Structures are given as C-alpha cells and as structure tokens.
Amino acid sequence: MDREAIGPVQKVYTRRIEAAEQGSYIEVPFDMVPEAERLHVSISVGTAQGRTAVIDLGVRDAVRLRGWSGGARREFQIGRERATPGYTPGPLEAGGWAVLLGAYRVPQEGCDVSVSITIERERPRWLKGDLHMHSVHSDGSYTLEENAAIMAELGCDFLAMTDHNTTSQNAAYPRDAAVVMIPGMEFTTNFGHSNMLGVEVPIDDFRSVDQAGVNDKLRTARERGAMIVLNHPHCDYCPWEWEFSDDFGIVEIWNGPWHEANRRTLDWWDEQLRKGRRIVAVGGSDMHRPDPYRKHAHPTTWVYGRSRTVDGILEGIDAGHVVLSWAPDGPFVSLACGDRIVGDAVADDSGRPPVILTAERLREGDAIRLISDRGVERDIAVSAADGGSAVLEWHERGRQYIRAEIWRKFEEVDRVLLAAVTNPIYFEPQEG
C-alpha cells in the first residue's frame, strides 16, 4: 500500500455521564495504531438548555498518565517531540490508550460528552522549512516563539535555530510550537562557519584557533550524532577558509537572497559532483532580524522525510532527498526515476526507466534546466500555455547524475535569479 495515501485514523465516541457519576474519573478507551506520529483529542459537552457541566480532560497511554488539563481545555495534541502544555510528548506506542473524563460537575439530568480522536500516522512526504536562522540567544532580534510563529504562518513544517556558538536555545524551545524545532548551533570561527544539527549540545566549547582544533570540534559533534553542514563557504565576509575535507557531505549552497557568493558555491558544488563526490545541497535564510531582502524560509528547504519529526527530517536530508526553492510558495521541482527520487542512486542499465521531471508554480518565461556531469542537457522556456506546471521526460544514459534548476526573471530587481534547484539522481554504471 502507498503509505503517502494513508489518511489519519478518526473516531468519535459519545459517553453519557449521569449525575451519580459526579466526582469519578471515566475512561473512554481507544487503540493507538502502530507508527503513530501525532494524537489530537477534542471534546464537546451537551447539556439541557440552561444547564452547565464541567468535565475535566486528560489521557493515559498503556503505561502511565500522559497529560491532564482539568477543565482548562477542550482539546489537546501530543506528538513525539511537542505537545500541548500539560501533556507529555514522546513515543506514541501502539496499544490500549484512554481519554480521561473527570466528572467534576454534572447536572441532575446528566450530560453527553462527545470525544473526537484523530491519530496521524507516520508517512513519508515533502516537508518544508529553514535550516539556518538566529534568535535573541545570539545576535538575532527574534525570540524563539516569534520565529516559530512566523514559520507556521508561512505554512512551513520545521526550522533549525542555529545560534552562534551557543546551545541555550535548544533547551528553551517552545513545547507547543506548531513547527518541528530542530536542535542546532552554528559553529562560528574566525575562518568559517558550519551548522551542527539534531543534537542539543553538539560540543562543549566552540573555541578553535587552528585546523586541529576545528577538526576536534567537528569530530566531537559527529560522535554525539550531529549532522554537519558547511555554511556559505564562498561568502564574501565569512567564507570557509579551513580545509574542504571529504568529511563534509552536506553544504549550504544557497544562503539568503540569491547573490554572487551563492553562485560561486553552486559552481563549486557542481564541480564536486562531476568529480564523483555525492554532496547534499541545502539552503538557509540565515535570518537574524527584520530585513527588506532577507526573510524567513527564503530560500525554503524541502525535505522528503518519513515523518514530521526531527529524526524523519534529518534522515531525509542525509539521504539527499532535498529540493530548494526561493520561497515557501516558490516553484517546486522534483525528479523521479521509477520509485527513486533526488538523492537516490539508480542502476544505469538497459531497463532503467526515464527520469521524470515534475514542476509546479511556474511562471511564463521561467527556464527549466536539466544538468548532468556533461553540462546543461535541456534548457526549456515555460510558456503561458503550460499553465504553471510542467512534466518532462529524460531518457539518456551514460551520465553520472542528473539534476534540475529553475531560473526566473524577478522584476523587483530586474535580474534573472535561481528560483529552484534539486539534488541529483545518481546513476550507477552498468557492470560489464
């Protein structure tokens, strides 16, 4: 079964509470399904006209109480990493759960309580967010709550707070944020920056003054499970001047608004791909404070993750399942070869299916480019007749990889700039 097509589990139960049950705690049992990602529960209380009932709310899993909000709430949610205040996030283990109803005040004629339960299951899908931003925990002006609220308003799924050389932000994340908050830190030296993602405390002390010290910090972060991203390596002001070692498997090729330093990194990345290095390209806004040009999720990093969780998103990045767009509502372009997508490797044999490019939210005049280790393979102008979308097939063989770019004329600056870019699909040469 296509797990992307699996919808949430939804159930509604009605429980009649009699006056004689006042003061008791009533359980409404339900089964938590395997591979659950998020639980949402809401209740409504029906009484005779003019009557009032006070029914408290909580929930237990198969082992323990997972939350209690009394009469203060009529709904809550629990995820693996975030939950409504009063409720404990964590694994949603399959088994027998129960919504808890506290019959605090019940009218003489009783009342009816409707309990609505929605369980969202883990399913792979495209998620969008920002992997590089700052807050008041370093040199940014936004609070953690403000950053999370802005990202949620943009329709994003995740953000990484990568404050400079500190991890205090990771301990202060709002527990009820609507977006996934990825632990992060920007390891900031006088000769280059790199993000350390996925671990609350990747290193204990950032201070490094030589290559050996930098190597030691990076090694420690990796040993603790952090994902290392080489940031804006060709920036005019803070480029990476340490070694470009083979350890760097993920590079920020797009930092903030598209500019010449990003172009240099894009060219460098393509050169590495031609040399056979499979480096994952990501982007980040590097947002610090209100700015007319630099904005949250500009660019947007799209990740095909197995779940809307830190682990699911980081696993998707590590696999190269990443597409970049200039904004959350900018063009989205994907590549598929059979059941393989960007970041995957495909045997380049006679039975290989064609690569299918699918693009959405295009504009007339956009240029779609397919690029391999031989250079630009296709360069197609989008017309008004395309209706904002395009589907292309590419059949050639004998390449190391194929990736896609979309270039657009932005009237605001009267320049043609990158609007979207994919990671490659790689080809394994046919043996014999």
Any overview of this molecule?
The protein is mostly beta strands. It is built from 5 helices and 28 strands. The strands form 6 sheets. Strands 9, 10, 11, 17, 18, 21, 23, 24, 26, 27 and 28 form an 11-stranded mixed sheet that branches. Strands 1-8-3-6 form a 4-stranded antiparallel sheet, with no helix packed on it. It has a 4-stranded antiparallel sheet with strand order 2-7-4-5, with no helix packed on it. The longest helix has 15 residues, at 260-274. It is globular and about 80 Å long.
Helix and strand arrangement:
Blueprint: E1 9-17, E2 25-32, E3 36-46, E4 54-60, E5 65-70, E6 75-79, E7 95-105, E8 111-121, E9 125-133, H1 144-153, E10 158-161, H2 168-171, E11 180-182, E12 184-189, E13 192-197, H3 211-223, E14 227-230, E15 250-255, H4 260-274, E16 280-284, E17 300-305, H5 310-318, E18 322-325, E19 332-337, E20 340-341, E21 345-348, E22 355-360, E23 367-372, E24 375-381, E25 390-394, E26 401-410, E27 415-422, E28 425-429
Parallel strand pairs: 9-10, 10-11, 15-16, 21-28
Antiparallel strand pairs: 1-8, 2-7, 3-6, 3-8, 4-5, 4-7, 9-17, 12-13, 13-14, 17-18, 18-27, 19-20, 19-22, 22-25, 23-24, 23-26, 26-27, 26-28
